[in-house]
Amino acid sequence: MNTGTPVFDKSAQARNLVLATWTSTICFWAWNMVGPMSTTYAERLDLSSSQASMLVATPILVGSLGRIVTGPLTDRYGGRALFIFVAVASIVPVLAVGLSASADSYVGLLASGFVLGIAGTVFAIGIPFAKSWYEPSRHGFATGVFGAGMVGTALSAFFTPRFVGWFGLITTHVIIAVALAVTAVLCVVLMKDSPEFTPNPEPVVPKLVAASKLRVTWEMSFLYAIVFGGFVAFSNYLPTYIKTIYDFSAVDAGTRTAAFALAAVIARPIGGALSDRIPPKWVVLASLGGTAVLAVVETLQPPPDIWSGLTFTLLAVFLGIGTGGVFAWVARRSPARNVGSVTGIVAAAGGLGGYFPPLVMGATYNEENNDYTVGLLLLAVTAAVAFAYTALKLHATEPEKDSATT
């Protein structure tokens, strides 16, 4: 393996990073097909708040746990093969969600949403793939740009309800299925693994065990569960929150959710690029501090549209720069041959961080006062605890490898 500073073809760098980001965008759109329509499904199926929350949370859970596997598989087979697999494997569950919704089947939506979670595993593939294509001084930039593929959640929030209105429920899901198929073809034809990529043929389980022994894995998992988990939770549950608190229509709620997701997407590469220039610790601290403050502000239910919009936009920005900062930190500290395994576990933690908040929000919703104060305060307290831990326990600079051995 080349131990010097790698020299890359710039056009190949750009092409593969763009393809990876595009694939992530389409897969994130597919992964978030249920969230923007959850209020519509809840009305049609007469679902309780907890049932609607479970509908939203199920794809998040599976997509999160699946990352534990796709991360180390990327170490072994390379990002190109895994990108193609996930894009193709997501086609059937996307269609199944459409058919289940058309049939007004809650069980069908839960089951197809469970399998749809596979689309969310794409994130654990792209981080090691993007990192391998760029020199160490630009790892924050590369992972930040790839992470911007989570704009797929914004596109889904904005366009999915509109597509359903324009084209119908089944046709909307067919459109996304076709987009996944076209994406897979583009990856087959144009995508390449980095010349710096060296397959790690070790079995998956020992690699995960080795990664689990690294301190960086659990420290970054804790932080990512908050910043990325917060993003995932809000980008999926915000349509329900906005409709409940402010009584907007599904389309209007989707528009505002799209703005939230877009703000986080724009902020993510900024957080990554900042972490190439200053220690990621300071980027993450800013993210956690801002998140805690804005979660408290939101308990006051700022009036629509300017003040509530400003509050959620700023919250999205702080969460976004945090996601970029955490993975820039992961790229600095993870052993090179285990970066996929570490990424898989950290990415899974981020997804799991997004699984529980919708359930908590649904369970703690105060119908009498029409508020989600308890859930928002729990977010504020969690972010504050993470802020204190990061400030007091984590070093501003870290070596390339953690002190643990693999």
Which residues form runs of ≥5 with pLDDT under 50? 399-406
State the fourth-level CATH superfamily: MFS general substrate transporter like domains
Identify the CATH architecture.
Up-down Bundle
Question: Looking at the structure, what is the overall shape?
Answer: globular
The largest sheet, given as strand count, sense and whether it forms a barrel, is:
none
Structural class: mainly alpha
Number of extended strands: 0
The total domain count is: 1
Q: What is the string of helix and strand elements? A: HHHHHHHHHHHHHHHHH
Main CATH class: Mainly Alpha
Cα radius of gyration in angstroms? 20 Å
Q: Given the structure, what is the number of helices?
A: 17
Secondary structure: helix percent: over 70%
**Strand proportion:** under 5%
Instruction: Give the N-terminus to C-terminus distance in angstroms.
Output: 18 Å
Mean pLDDT: 86
CATH topology-level name: Growth Hormone, Chain: A
Task: Give a description of the structure.
- This protein is mostly helical.
- The protein contains 17 helices and no strands.
- α2 crosses α3, α13 packs antiparallel against α14 (280-298) and α13 (250-277) packs parallel to α15 (306-333).
- The protein is globular, with a radius of gyration of 20 Å.
- 56% of the residues are buried.
